Every structure is written in C-alpha cells, then in structure tokens.
Amino acid sequence: MSKNNSKKYSILLVSKSNSSIRRFDISKRSFVAVAATLAFSLVLFATTIAGLCHYRNAYFSTEKLKSETIDFQKNKAHVFSKLVNLEMLVDRTMRLSAKLDSVFDNANTEPAKGPIDEDDWRATLERMKDDYETPDGRWRSFYTSNADLDFEIDRIMTKATSVTKDINAAFLTTKDKLFFWASVPSMWPTQGWITSGFGARRLSGRRTGGRQSRWHEGIDIAAPRGTPIMTSADGFVTFDGYKSGYGQTLIVDHGNGISTLYAHCSSLLVQEGDYVKRGMIIASVGNTGRSTGPHLHYEVQIDGVAVDPLAYIVEGK
Questions:
Q1: Residue 40: count of CB within 10 angstroms of its CB
Q2: Same domain, 246 and 147
C-alpha cells in the first residue's frame, strides 16, 4: 500500500454545551469514495429534477394541444352547422325562385314548392340528421382537412351565386309583368251608372230625324256632382285643364301605350307631371263642357286609339 493511500483524514466534532470533542478518522480512499458518491448523487438528483421539469412541461404542452384540438373540433363542428344552415337557406331560396317563375308562367319551369313548406324542410332536416348526426345527438363533420372545408364553402358559394342570378332574372321578369298589370286600367273610375256606352250612338232630334249616329269614344257614368273620381291605373298626369267639349279634363299616361281620359269634372285635384296610383282620387264628377247633366266621360286609349273601357275593367264597383 502506498503512502498516499494510507493517508487519513480526521473529523473533529466539538460539543458546544460541555466542550467535549469527538474525533473520527477516515482514510483517503474512503473519503474519495464518499465524495464521489455525494457528487454522483447530486448529479443524479439534478438530472432527475431536470427530467421532471421537462416531463412537466411536456405534459402541460400535451394538455394544451389536446385542449386546442378539442376547441378546433368544436369550431369545425360549429362551422359545419353553419354550412348546413346555409345550404338549407340556399335550397329554400332556390325553391322561392322556382315558385316566382311558376307563378308568372315562365317557360321551362316546373311548379315548385313554397320556400317555407313545413313538410319539405322537415324532410330535409331528417335526411341530414341521418347522414351527419352521431348517436349522442351531436352533429359530426365529414371534413377531415381545411381543404375539404374550403371546397365545401366554395361549392355552396357557387350555388348561392347561381341562385342570386336566377332570383335577379325572376325579379326582372316579375317586375316587368307587375308594372304592366299596374298600368292596365282595370278598376271603375267612379261610382254611378252607365248612361251611354262605347261605340255608335243614335242622335235624337228634329233635324236628324233620329236616324243619324255618332261614334262615342268612351262611356258616360252618371253620378251626383262632387262624386270622387279615381285613376284606374298607375301613371303620370299628362294634361289637366279645360278641353273643348270635354270641360275640365284630366289625361293620365299609364305606359305601354295606354292612357285614360276623365272629362266634365267639376274640380281637378292633380296637375300635369304628377304621378298617380291606382285608386287615387284625382278629380270630382261635374257638368262642365258639353254636358246635359253631372257625369264622368271616361275613355281608354291604346296608342292613341279609343277602345271600349269595359273590356279592361275587371274589378267590381
């Protein structure tokens, strides 16, 4: 044994109370072994603490990732639910467009259900629930990636764009037809009784011998003086004032070549340039001009040619 290995170290323990001293001798080899053991233990402890910290961080990162994944799945399910509702809305809008076409007899259009028919949307919902509802009553998504979701959104947007074009076309068609019907003089212009119809009427008198006739370009409706006169269709007033033979007169242009004339009025309530709606009071019955008693002389003209007003009146008095 070498001299270095036989070297010893002494450890003295001094008691504070009775001043006694205890001495412990330890060889150099034992001292090195104890020191190495303590150093190894410290390194092992530090490594263990570092490993635990790393595991802790990894655990919390994993939990955070799980939470984010759950939130993502919830958001995806929410988006899917909105897409389902959007597609149902687009389908209902398509049926509305088809119904508009069928109501106005558009060509090549089959009659369609209404946009909010209960049986229809209930059947659609039940069909979609069979496809996309889980056993626990929640909606499941068939989208496995953002690309699938983007594709579905693009598909519905394309469908919605097509529906928008169809509705615009239907709106323009119905607008034109509604405008045309609004311009048709289909209501009675006043309350009264017809005393002279449209067409040839016999002239009585000593000079004519009762055999001559004159063409009457409208109808005469007898009524008490001051009875309201209403415009029979929408249009613009193109004349207001006194007209030879007709007295106080109004002429309304309804568009599409249609115009109406209201003569022998006692008072005029609108003037040239005014826009009038069907049923609006525009004058009152009178006896102005060449007239034998209070009445309204009422004419309908198509492209300047007088036609029988009764052929256009469809609303009862």
A1: 10
A2: no
Tokens for 312?
Answer: 């256009």
Contact assessment for residue 35 and residue 55, using Cβ atoms and an 8 Å cutoff? no
Enumerate residues 6+ apart whose C-beta is below 8 A from 21.
Answer: 12, 13, 14, 15
AA identity, residue 209? G
49 lies in the same domain as 105: no
pLDDT of residue 100: 63
104 DSSP assignment: T
The list of the chain residues with pLDDT below 70 reads 1-6, 18-19, 96-97, 99-150, 168, 170-179, 202-213, 315-317
DSSP annotation of 309: G
pLDDT for the residue 215: 84
Please tell me the predicted confidence (pLDDT) of residue 179. Answer: 65
d(CA 254, CA 278): 10
- Of the candidates 187, 185, 197, the one whose C-alpha atom is nearest the C-alpha of residue 295 is 197
Alpha-carbon distance of 160 to 186, in angstroms, equals 39
Closest CA to 110 of 99, 118, 94: 99
Angstrom CA distances, 290 to 21, 195, 263, stand at 152, 15, 10
Global pTM? 0.48
- Total domains in the chain come to 3
Which residue carries 């303590």 as its tokens? 38
Secondary structure in 3-state letters for 175-232: HHHHHHHHCCCCCCCCCCEEEECCEEEECCCCCCCCCCEEEECCEEEECCCCCEEECC
We report the CATH number of the domain holding residue 225 as 2.70.70.10
Q: Which of 216, 215, 282, 275 is nearest to 249 (CA)?
A: 282
